[in-house]
Amino acid sequence: MKMDSPLDCAAPACKGRPREFDVDDALAAALRVFWSRGYEAASLSELTEAMGITKPSLYAAFGNKEALFRKALDLYETEKLAYMHTALAAPTARGVAEKLLRGALANFCTANEPKGCLGVISSVACGPEAESIKADIVARRASSERAMIERFARARDEGDLPAHVDPAGLTRWLTAILQGMSVQASAGASPAELEQLITTSLQVFPGR
Fold it and tell me: Which of 66, 113, 141, 185 is most buried, by the most CB atoms less than 10 A from its CB?
């Protein structure tokens, strides 16, 4: 006898069946699990319990765990990383750096939210079986870094940064600071302790 697969609920016969849960609420709950645990450590049982749905419902609505994570990552970038777009629009390179650092601090240490950065947590914890997830996170990070490099290159061309400054090197330095803040926040560093890191970073930043 052929056993029904978890994806059978996505078949035409089930199309008219109304969902018994709010997809947006379920995705937000999944995001919190991934953010707290990382991609690999988050089990399907943890996800479905937090989302308030069954495994067949998860498969029908989101595809599989990997597809669910990518949707959660999209939501994270839209809701939690919006400060990055605001930062890149700052009138000075130093303003860009400050808005990035303070936006990250607020994101990493928001009350009643998981600590640290979803991308950093998941990419660090990804093993060989999750290479495609790690590759996606790295590609998204590279896209953000390209935008920062372009912004700092413009600042250098406009005289806002010294002529000797390498925009790519400056971007990698700032990215390392942001990643370090995420790791420290996940390990329990307080907002005040991370604020010290921001203050020191801005003191050595080459822009005005």
Answer: 185
Q: Are 141 and 84 in contact (CB under 8 A)?
A: no
pTM > 0.85: yes or no: no
Distance CA 201, CA 7 (A): 50
pLDDT at 165: 96
Q: Which residues contact 27 (CB under 8 A, 6 or more apart)?
A: 51, 62, 68, 71, 72, 75
User: How would residue 5 be classed by pLDDT, with cut points 50, 70 and 90?
Assistant: very low
Chain Cα centroid distance, residue 198: 20
Rounded Cα distance between 179 and 140, Å, is: 14
Burial class (CB in 10 A: 0-12, 13-18, 19+), 13: exposed
Nearest to 181 by CA among 95, 112, 121: 121
Rounded mean pLDDT, 71-88 = 92
The number of angstroms, rounded, from the C-alpha of 105 to the middle of its chain's C-alpha atoms is: 13
Number of structural domains found in the chain? 2
Task: Say which CATH number the domain at 127 has.
Answer: 1.10.357.10
| Same domain, yes or no: 117 and 182 | yes
